[in-house]
Amino acid sequence: MPPNPYLFIVVFAGVALTFPLVPLALAWLWRKFFQPPKPGTEKNAIYECGIESAGDAHVQFQSQYYLYAIIFLIFDVEAVFLVPFAVAFTSLPVGAFIAVLVFLFLLVEGLVWAWAKGCLNWSR
Fold it and tell me: Which residue, 23, 27, 33, 98, has fewest beta-carbon neighbours within 10 Å?
């Protein structure tokens, strides 16, 4: 007798639900039995370095930091695509070489565009 075709889906769904729910349940039980029930002197004590914090915890960063980070991520991910080409360079046809040249041209074009827009200047 062949197994039910939906058995795999049921087992997969069970495992997919079990893996996240079991750690959450264990964390909830740990909190229930070991956490102090009310805030007290120990729970509100200074932690880590022991220095009383001063000022507002909210720090506002300039948007150019985020723009710089996004540009870095884009060029970093695009550089990862060059590794397989470099590994298989000798066995690839000429069309692959031209495709990588177009890819590099677009990469350099993006760098020139970001530079021309002033995205890489820290002075502004």
Answer: 33
User: Would the pTM count as exceeding 0.70?
Assistant: no
Burial tier of 114 (Cβ tally within 10 Å: 0-12, 13-18, 19+): middle
Q: What is the DSSP string of 23-58?
A: HHHHHHHHHHHHS-SS--TTTTS--TT-PPP-S-S-
Q: Which two tokens stand for residue 121?
A: 């200047």
> Two tokens at 117?
């827009």
The whole-angstrom separation of Cα 103 and Cα 101 is 5
pLDDT 10s digits, 78-106: 888 888 888 887 888 888 889 889 988 98
Percent of the chain with pLDDT over 90: 23
Q: Which residues contact 121 (CB under 8 A, 6 or more apart)?
A: none
Contact 87, 116 (CB under 8 A): no
CA atoms of 122 and 64, how far apart (whole Å): 8
